[in-house]
Amino acid sequence: xxxxxxxxxxxxxxxxxxxxxxxxxxxxxxxxxxxxxxxxxxxxxxxxxxxxxxxxxxxxxxxxxxxxxxxxxxxxxxxxxxxxxxxxxxxxxxxxxxxxxxxxxxxxxxxxxxxxxxxxxxxxxxxxxxxxxxxxxxxxxxxxxxxxxxxxxxxxxxx
Length: 159
Known about the structure:
Elements: H1 2-9, H2 14-80, H3 86-121, H4 132-138
Helix pairs in contact: 2-3
């Protein structure tokens, strides 16, 4: 009995080494968790920033579409009055369609960024679920534009 007690007490530092190893593993796990949380916050912040920029771009593009529609109406009126040739009206139609296409592409990018933001925040709890409350407070800062822009006027089609 005495020899087993002595062997347990004097194990050559094995217990201390096992304890140190367990603490090192724990600290590594904590560091990995912190890195994951920081990366998740970065993804959410990037997503919010992207949505904010796309929302501003879409507002500006919608204004460009509206302006193009007005210009097309003017060129058609001038053509019908005999003051301009049809080529000017056709150029205005081309500009309007290009602006509408750009606005549509921006809306698509905005929707894609929204999906990425939801994936980053993991509203379903599968990934970065600790960010859902943070996203709820930050999402108020971004206005997701569901506005489709000005509707095309009936005169915006080709003759």
